[in-house]
Write a structure and sequence with these properties.
- With 327 residues, the protein is of the alpha+beta class.
- It folds into four domains: 85 residues, Arc Repressor Mutant, subunit A, CATH 1.10.10; 36 residues, no CATH class; 76 residues, SH3 type barrels, CATH 2.30.30; 76 residues, Alpha-Beta Plaits (2-Layer Sandwich), CATH 3.30.70.
- The chain has nine helices and 13 strands.
- The longest helix has 19 residues.
- It comes from Antiquaquibacter soli.
- This is WYL domain-containing protein.
Length: 327
């Protein structure tokens, strides 16, 4: 006579149900056999658990169980086809949810990630986006992330780094000048929304950093790189100064100093001025300073030299004038 399975203890049964319910909530429709195989238990144990779930829930405001206070199941499908479909979910389903706007923002981020070359297997990302859509407090707004020209450049840059071959391209530098570059690519990095290639530039005969959106006509060559990562020193900071850089004095909120750490020269003096810190930064030109200060509105102020203050002030005034003008 075969041994009968030992009955579950109450705490074991509770632990099993706490695992089973989220699993069922994550699957729109699943067979009893699939669930039994997933949890490694007899099919009849799954059927008993489902019947128990069907009379479980939380009391509403009246402190009595009313319609909608209990889990509900498509019973005909369960009894006739051995399929489990939850038609009403409570308790766990009442946990905090993302708003429709929050879910849409996360979905947009996942769409961007799925477009990157390293995420060729997009099944997991698609599943996560589907879960976010179902789990939001309202239907998220449809979003789409448009591919940019730099996506192809990013793919080529990463391929050249992996293969250890030279990359050549036309580059528009910060002064608006276009030059043809031949580079031994060493590393691809990102800062905020911008991607950068770091490598040995044969034109400058030094390590240089290139913004991918300023690269055009990139082409992978078949020439092996002449300078590898072990042959040159890549600085810890992404942006390196040069003798031609301009020094600008700024006042910045103490909590935001770390945001400009790459621009602050080593050994730069720091003085407390009220609730701000006065220090200096290095930029290649004042056009770059305008862009930098635009991202630090209300946090950083240009103090000196006068021409730097004038350039930033004029640029800000021109932008404000566009908003105040009427058609």
């Amino acid at each position: 006579m075969a041994d009968r399975p030992q009955p579950q203890r109450a705490q074991d049964k509770l632990a099993f149900l706490l695992s089973l319910v989220p699993y069922l909530m994550d699957h729109d429709r699943v067979s009893v056999t699939e669930v039994a195989e997933h949890f490694g238990v007899p099919a009849e144990q799954i059927r008993d658990a489902v019947r128990l779930i069907g009379v479980s829930g939380i009391p509403g405001e009246t402190a009595m169980y009313q319609h909608g206070d209990l889990f509900d199941i498509a019973w005909d499908d369960f009894e006739d086809n051995d399929q489990i479909v939850l038609t009403n979910m409570v308790a766990i389903d009442d946990s905090p949810r993302f708003s429709a706007r929050e879910a849409a923002a996360l979905i947009a981020g996942l769409q961007y990630l799925s477009a990157l070359p390293e995420h060729s297997d997009r099944t997991a990302i698609a599943t996560l986006m589907s879960k976010l859509s179902r789990g939001a407090s309202a239907v998220p707004s449809p979003v789409a992330v448009e591919a940019s020209e730099s996506d192809e450049t990013l793919a080529l840059a990463r391929e050249s780094v992996e293969r250890g071959v030279q990359l050549e391209f036309d580059y528009l530098n910060s002064r608006g000048e276009s030059e043809h570059r031949l580079v031994d690519p060493l590393r691809v990095e990102s800062v905020d929304a911008d991607w950068y290639l770091r490598g040995w530039c044969h034109l400058r005969e030094a390590v240089r950093t290139f913004r991918l959106d300023r690269i055009s006509s990139p082409r992978i060559t078949e020439k092996p790189i002449a300078h590898g990562a072990t042959d040159v020193t890549l600085p810890d900071t992404l942006f390196e100064g040069s003798a031609d850089d301009l020094t600008v004095t700024i006042d910045i909120a103490a909590g935001a100093v770390a945001l400009l750490a790459d621009y602050i020269p080593e050994g730069a003096e720091r003085t407390d001025v009220g609730d701000r810190v006065r220090t200096s930064i290095r930029v290649s030109h004042y056009h770059g300073l305008k862009r930098l200060m635009a991202g630090m509105s209300g946090v950083a102020t240009v103090v000196a030299p006068p021409e730097a203050r004038a350039v930033v002030a004029e640029w800000a005034a021109a932008g404000a004038a566009r908003y105040s003008s009427r058609p």
